[in-house]
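Quick question, first post here. What does this chain look like in 3D?
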Amino acid sequence: SSGINAEYGGGMGLDISYEAVAAEAYARITSGGVGMGIGIQCDIATPALVKYGNEELKERYLRPTISGDIVACLGVSEVGGGSDVAALKTTARRDGDEWVINGGKMWTTNGAQADWMCVLANSSEGPVHKNKSLFVLPMDTPGVNVHRKIEKMGMHASDTTETTFEDARIPANHLIGEEGKGFTYQMQQFQNERIYIGAGTIAAMDKCMESTIEYTSQRQAFGKSILDNQYVHYKLAELQTELECTRDLYYKCIDDYLAGED
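> Answer (accepted):
Ran it through. Tokens below.
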């Protein structure tokens, strides 16, 4: 990962714009699951650990994740709620020098092969935006159960699972950053995730345009190519304009992010 310091096995410590360029290149791969798997490792499950994790967690989990020796996944969405992060039900209860996690996560990318999960859970009874914490949860922890691999319409090279936790105990130092800051940390991680996914989406749109132009130039009807019809030119020009506007908006989001804006 270009944005993670070489100290932990990353690249040159470059800003996220370099990661966006790489994500656009990954999206050129016909299998979308390849870029998705890389994104989980570098920009979706690890940013909070990079920023707020203690040194022991970084050495034990971040370094081998970035080197590709172990696989990470992110546990946020649940059966009863996907985008509504504040409404999640998974709990983490402090018991001496351990945290006890109960609940479950849904639609977890990399879940079937992951070695650890960056999991968001309610760690207190306070306000929903201040009662959550992020944890490093090893997937071989007793009480962690991967129930099924979910069948999807696409991205078959990328596994997606349902996982439950039944009194899964982890050491107290597996807390990422401060207790109660998990919602904020996860919103920050989502910014990295959306920048990464946005790059892939735009690259996919580029591929669609290129394929459409190639097809319409080759497809013959009434003695000429479909592309030779003026209406098709107009429509393609309109679509390309929308694509370029989207690209500019995306690049502006990166500029705003680098300027410190949310």
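The first helix runs from residue 16 to 26.
The chain is about 40% helix and 25% strand.
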